[in-house]
Write a structure and sequence with these properties.
Elements lengths: L1 H15 L2 H27 L4 E7 L14 E6 L3 H9 L5 E5 L11 E3 L6 H22 L4 H7 L7 E5 L2 E5 L1 H35 L2 H6 L4 H38 L7 H12 L4 H28 L2 H29 L7 H24 L4 H8 L4 H8 L6 H29 L9 H7 L5
Parallel strand pairs: 1-2, 1-3
Antiparallel strand pairs: 3-4, 5-6
């Protein structure tokens, strides 16, 4: 055991002292902060008011378009040529021309601009025109928008779990995100650090360093030390990413005041009130109403998160995080020992990675659609797919016996793959210059060394 511990220390310290480890550990939180903060910052910096000139020959639309905080309208009169001339002398965004149209067939409406019209501007104008035409049609039918709004129903279902502990609120979106986030982390962790084990074994085998190490330790001890050592490196880097990402994102958000910016709902409500000609008090009421809806949404999400079994989710994540890595890490180590270079690994990696890829894809389809279905059950029990599939199912609630059975089989699967990998590792680690196939690998399982 002491020799395995020495190998773990060597693998851990060698990797955490590398410049690549330090650089990636520091750069990844910065990239995450950039992805989270930069879009919001760019939107706030490019939040300019657009002005659209409107020439309405029909008299049906002009003056009825709703102005927004970032969108203004200027009404024109006269001919189209005169309007084009006036528009060319300004720096306004576009010229909206509405010819003589009927409410039933609103054709011929055109946008003139000095540059290509942006998709956002086109869609916003189309939506406004469609809404106003609909209002005109409703009035012609003897209805108005207020009556239609009263008729329309807006249903939001409240979901409650009935359990032995009583009634608990839940949210399908929050539950799904919690499960998928853990599954994605496990998926990429297995691939990232499993490949590191394989490359490390190939490198030591190619440089003949392993011949010196085998003289002091057994191949099984060397393989286990390498697997556990790389796992410790992965956990260290993951924890550092979590801590540093939180610090960086919080610091950058506070420095640029992004959290203090009004929400899109508040901006929309303010624009609605201003366009309708309401006073400051009415605008404040509209903003407060939208803010209350946003607050209620956040409250519902917070309540759903608080009702999740967070300790169970974190405990299962840590178990399947390590269990899945150890199971696949042993196989990646065996592949590294069986080949002489990384090019030869492709034929052996494909069958190993198929269960991972299938479980990752199925998590987004059948598992989220029916987390208690037979496919979800069996994939969460089979050791090669359980680290990802069971992680998706846990937030939805899994019977204790299923969870214990899945964990027990994962441990047995790790022991089994470790036994197979050790039989391959002990032979392949000292074999050079021979092309290996599956038939040859099967023979290695029964060699006496």
């Amino acid at each position: 055991m002491s020799k395995i511990w020495l190998i773990i220390q060597r693998e851990y310290l060698t990797r955490v002292r590398k410049k690549s480890f330090i650089i990636m550990t520091l750069i990844t939180p910065l990239l995450l902060a950039a992805f989270m903060v930069l879009p919001a910052l760019l939107v706030s910096m490019s939040d300019e008011t657009e002005t659209v000139m409107v020439l309405d020959k029909s008299g049906l639309i002009a003056g009825k378009l709703e102005e927004k905080k970032d969108l203004r309208f200027v009404l024109l009169a006269g001919s189209l040529e005169q309007a084009k001339t006036v528009y060319q002398e300004t720096d306004h965004t576009a010229l909206l021309y509405i010819p003589e149209i009927s409410v039933q067939e609103p054709k011929g409406i055109t946008i003139y601009s000095k540059k290509n019209t942006s998709l956002q501007t086109q869609v916003r104008l189309e939506n406004m025109l469609e809404k106003e035409i609909e209002n005109q049609r409703l009035l012609a039918s003897g209805l108005d928008r207020q009556t239609l709004d009263k008729i329309e129903a807006d249903i939001k279902l409240t979901t409650i779990n009935l359990s032995d502990e009583g009634e608990k609120d839940n949210n399908a979106i929050v539950t799904s995100i919690a499960g998928v986030a853990g599954a994605v982390l496990i998926y990429f962790f297995i691939f990232l650090y499993g490949v590191q084990i394989m490359r490390g074994v190939i490198e030591e085998k190619t440089n003949r360093i392993v011949e010196v190490m085998i003289s002091s330790v057994r191949p099984f001890q060397l393989m286990m030390g390498k697997i556990v050592g790389v796992a410790a490196v992965g956990l260290t880097q993951f924890l550092l990413w979590v801590v540093l990402s939180f610090v960086v994102v919080t610091g950058v958000s506070a420095a640029f005041g992004i959290n203090a910016a009004p929400s899109p709902a508040e901006q929309f409500a303010a624009g609605q009130a201003a366009a309708a000609g309401e006073d400051v008090e009415a605008e404040a009421i509209a903003t407060q109403s939208s803010g209350e809806e946003g607050t209620q949404m956040l409250t519902d999400v917070s309540r759903a998160i608080s009702n999740l079994n967070i300790p169970l989710i974190l405990g299962c994540f840590l178990f399947y995080f390590l269990g899945g890595y150890l199971l696949y890490g042993a196989l990646f180590g065996a592949i590294g020992a069986a080949v002489d270079n990384e090019t030869d690994t492709q034929q052996f990696m494909f069958p190993i990675t198929i269960p991972l890829v299938i479980s990752f894809i199925m998590s987004y389809t059948l598992v989220l659609k029916n987390p208690d279905g037979p496919v979800s059950f069996w994939m969460s029990i089979i050791p090669f797919t359980s680290p990802i599939v069971m992680m998706v199912r846990v937030p939805f609630g899994v019977p204790a016996w299923e969870l214990l059975l899945s964990m027990a089989l994962l441990v047995l699967g790790f022991v089994f793959t470790t036994w197979i990998a050790s039989r391959i590792y002990r032979v392949g680690i000292l074999m050079y210059g021979k092309k290996i196939n599956y038939k040859e690998l099967s023979k290695w399982l029964f060699y006496r060394v």
